[in-house]
Specification:
Layout lengths: L11 E2 L22 E5 L2 E4 L2 H17 L40 H16 L4 H13 L4 H14 L3 H14 L4 H14 L5 H11 L4 H13 L6 H11 L4 H14 L3 H17 L4 H11 L11 H12 L5 H15 L7 H19 L4 H17 L22
Antiparallel strand pairs: 1-2, 2-3
């Protein structure tokens, strides 16, 4: 964690007998226990409580991303290695009066001082490659180190298969690191071999099924190298484990968009979505997927497929009051009520009113203003289309004067 008494954001450290003359609640970093103060023209003042939060969070950040503990126990400082005696380390230059002095550990400074030196000299060697590995242990998010590592790999004509193995190890312990995933993509592009990528991303997704970086990499791989063949089966297994996995629903739609829709695919996916919705009617992802599939039809109306209408109305009649079911029915009935050739427009308008009232009063009260707006907007369009029916403003007084801003 923090290896000396100075906190990561300290400008100066108060002496042990320091007493704050301006603030009785002198801020201490809860991790390093240091008085964190800054010297001003008027004397010394303590950091505010807000700044204390910054101190703590930044101490934590340093601990997570640059721990010396990851280096092996027998690790030796570069300044003590005879084979590096020909290199003059370059210290970090923070300027004459740095605003913030970061409390780097001795090991961290040693590694990066030598890294700056080899970058300055342009050295591209096996030892430089090993140095970048140590630098990435200390800070795996340092994009400059990753870029220089790629330069060294290319200059050495290194075995890139070994590099993929190395990167896989880094990803297992840093699965949400942008830089390491980008590095892997570049190596795969150089090799033009995606053979290990689906297995790797599946392994990462077993640990965190919603890891954005793993999904992004997987989508890039299957779309770039046309590896769609078994992806729907993979997604189906994930949804079998957790039907609420919104990332898996997104992946299913991603695959279908790339492989194409026809009437058979649309019908199949409608049935797939409805079967999953039956398991958990309150899952928003599956309802959104169903809507997305319906929009791929030549007629994107929500009621274009009678089986969908029957499915939704059956759920409602059986007692389901899922807000996602009601929202679907509201949108479907609005479409039907606004069709000028619809013979039962007033009936559907009444259903819209009843369902919106149900949302407002019971099923989605936190968004009651939104549903009042929907109802108000619907009747404005309904009247403009030439039919008022049996409904007027008196039947929904709460929708009067409702706007989006309210």
């Amino acid at each position: 964690m923090i290896s000396n008494s100075m906190c990561i954001y300290s400008v100066s450290v108060a002496p042990a007998d320091f007493e704050c003359g301006q603030n009785s609640h002198c801020s201490l970093c809860s991790l390093c226990g240091t008085h964190c103060v800054t010297a001003l023209s008027g004397g010394i003042r303590c950091f505010s409580r807000i700044e204390e939060v910054l101190l703590i969070s930044n101490c934590l950040a340093m601990g997570d991303s640059s721990s010396d503990d990851e280096l092996p126990e027998e690790w030796q400082m570069y300044c003590e290695r005879p084979e590096w005696s020909d290199v003059v380390p370059i210290e970090q230059d923070d300027g004459e009066n740095p605003v913030v002095v970061i409390a780097y550990s001795d090991k961290f400074k040693d590694v990066y001082n030598y890294f700056r030196a080899i970058v300055a000299s342009g050295e591209k060697s096996e030892r430089a490659l090993e140095l970048t590995k140590d630098a990435l242990v200390l800070n795996p998010a340092n994009y400059t180190v990753w870029q220089y590592r790629r330069d060294v790999l290319k200059a050495l004509n290194a075995d890139l298969s070994n590099e993929l193995d190395y990167v896989a190890d880094v990803i297992e312990s840093n699965g949400k690191n942008y830089q390491v995933w980008h590095h892997r993509r570049v190596i795969v592009e150089w090799l033009q071999d995606p053979g290990k990528e689906l297995e790797l991303t599946e392994k990462i997704l077993r640990v965190d099924s919603k890891n954005y970086h793993a999904w992004q990499h997987r989508q890039w791989v299957i779309s770039t190298y046309r590896l769609f063949d078994n992806e729907l089966n993979f997604v189906d297994r994930l949804l079998g484990d957790d039907v609420r996995n919104n990332s898996a629903w997104n992946q299913r739609f991603f695959v279908l968009k790339h492989t194409g829709f026809d009437t058979n695919v649309i019908s199949r996916e409608i049935m797939y979505a409805m079967n999953r919705i039956r398991l958990v009617t309150g899952n928003e992802s599956s309802w959104n997927f169903l809507r997305g599939i319906l929009q791929q039809s030549e007629d994107p109306s929500l009621d274009h497929y009678p089986e969908v209408v029957a499915f939704c109305e059956e759920l409602f009649d059986s007692g389901s009051r899922s807000p996602h079911l009601l929202a679907f029915l509201i949108d479907m009935y609005i479409e039907k009520a606004l069709r000028t050739k619809e013979g039962t427009r007033d009936e559907y308008a009444h259903r819209v009113t009843s369902l919106c009232d149900l949302m407002i009063e019971e099923c989605d009260t936190i968004r009651s203003r939104y549903w009042r707006y929907i109802l108000d907007n619907f009747y404005s369009n309904y009247k403009a289309s030439g039919s008022v029916g049996n409904h007027d403003k008196e039947t929904t007084p709460e929708s009067e004067n409702i706007s989006v801003d309210s």
